[in-house]
């Protein structure tokens, strides 16, 4: 059984995961590098005979893990276990494919006209282009919702952090990745509590690079 979420809108994503929590406690997290663990989970059972609940996160960004997921989708659909597929950057073709096998698809995508601007900022941030980040931030800060920007930045920087952990070349150190990711997550939490202004927090993070 498959449930899917696509897109980066942080508010919609938060609500989606609240609804997914009713399916049971997640027992496994599957990323690109763990894709070999996915097939055994289709027929697996927990120690207590409960359903396995696997969160399959952003595996379609890498060709090898994408192909394996696509191969297994029919079996995952028929499985008694639950697979929560999370693809924040899924394009229309991937969404259509996932819809075919999913019990439910939650669409947290940002409108395309907004997505272009937001991801320009994200890519500049990932390249540590401070001048470009500032210029793009000034361009979109009053045009896009802070929640949408925070969600896109958090997921984009997650890929940077993953690359650093894998030993790939990066403009960021592992410690910096941990600190920046933590600040991005905390910014949303503090904003929801009414303790901080999300836009102000995001600006401070963007300028800190």
Beta-strand segment tally: 5
Strands across the major sheet, in which order? 2-3-4-1-5
Mean pLDDT comes to 90
Order of helical and strand elements = EHEHEHEHEHHHHH
Can you tell me about this structure?
With 209 residues, the chain is an alpha/beta fold. Helices cover 56% and strands 12% of the residues. It contains 9 helices and 5 strands; from the N terminus they run βαβαβαβαβααααα. The radius of gyration is 18 Å and the shape is globular. The termini are far apart. The mean pLDDT is 90.
List the defining traits of the structure above:
209 residues, alpha/beta, 5-stranded parallel sheet, 56% helix
Provide the fold topology.
Elements lengths: L1 E6 L2 H11 L7 E3 L7 H4 L11 E5 L5 H16 L3 E6 L4 H10 L2 E5 L3 H15 L3 H11 L5 H20 L8 H20 L4 H10 L2
Parallel strand pairs: 1-4, 1-5, 2-3, 3-4
In short:
This protein has 209 residues and is of the alpha/beta class.
